[in-house]
Write a structure and sequence with these properties.
Elements (H helix, E strand, L loop, with lengths): L3 E2 L6 E6 L9 H10 L3 E6 L12 H18 L5 E3 L11 H14 L3 E5 L13 H18 L6 H4 L10 E5 L6 E4 L4 H9 L2 H6 L7 H9 L11 E8 L2
Parallel strand pairs: 1-7, 2-3, 2-5, 3-4, 5-6
Antiparallel strand pairs: 6-8, 7-8
Keywords: Zinc
Organism: Ornithinimicrobium ciconiae
Protein name: PIG-L family deacetylase
């Protein structure tokens, strides 16, 4: 596998995922480097992760996990985190989700869109959770929706003009990566970002790997070592 270096000719990015902590499993390392270089990065989450902690009711977990996401984002230089408030665990791909993401794309007008894989399996064979698949695919389709004034025309009445300025879509955790970014220098920031999800991490139990151990495994895969000690890889789609 030969990967190209991730492009740098963009200034603003929007990262769209399903749950608090999804971005912290590797992508935050890339985000830390981008914000340090002066790029603007914001997050959009479809849910507040309210079904993610077995010992905490959804009513308690939603605000707690949302705050942990804000805290984790701050560790890597992100100060805008928005939520769509779909229901955790039962997010469905469809027009409401596409419309909500397209509307947000029109609001923030990014050049780079970062999403999670919508494949059925992660690299290594682990099953990809249903919300991840629904949000990843909807975000991909929302790129076109955001740029077409005749798709969801009611958004025009909300003052949301079409935005066709997304140059790249990066699919994180793809089984078919095309590009890489050496994140060795930002690894510790990524660890701090995942550690900010304290309640969620505690809920995983004492036998679950620590944030540092987990990110060492995710970003230190042997087959990527030729590109750096710690590497973030993604499938990149050039839309221009």
């Amino acid at each position: 596998m030969t990967l190209a270096e991730f492009p740098d000719d963009w200034q603003s990015a929007l990262c769209v995922v399903a749950h608090p902590d999804d971005l912290e499993y590797g992508t935050a390392a890339a985000v830390a480097g981008w914000t340090a270089a002066g790029k603007s990065v914001s997050y959009l989450l479809a849910t507040r992760g309210e079904a993610g902690i077995d010992g905490m009711s959804p009513e308690e977990a939603a605000p707690a996990r949302a705050q942990e996401e804000r805290d984790g984002a701050a560790e890597v230089g992100v100060d805008r985190v928005d939520f769509l408030d779909f229901t955790d665990g039962i997010v469905e791909y469809g027009l409401p989700l596409r419309k909500a993401i397209a509307a947000h794309i029109r609001r923030v007008r990014p050049e780079l869109l970062v999403i999670g894989t919508f494949e059925e399996f992660f690299p290594g064979g682990f099953v990809n959770q249903a919300d991840h698949r629904a949000v990843g695919l909807a975000a991909m389709d929302a790129c076109a929706d955001a740029g077409n004034r005749w798709i969801f025309p009611e958004l025009l009445g909300e003052g949301l003009e079409p935005w066709g300025g997304i140059r790249y879509v990066a699919i994180a955790a793809s089984t078919q990566p095309t590009h890489y970014l050496d994140v060795t220098d930002t690894f510790d920031l990524a660890v701090a970002s995942l550690e900010a999800h304290q309640l969620y991490n505690e809920g995983l139990g004492p036998d679950f790997p620590s944030p540092r151990e987990l990110l060492t495994e995710i970003l230190g895969m042997e087959h990527l070592r030729e590109y750096g000690d710690k590497v973030w890889a993604a499938q990149l789609i050039n839309r221009r």
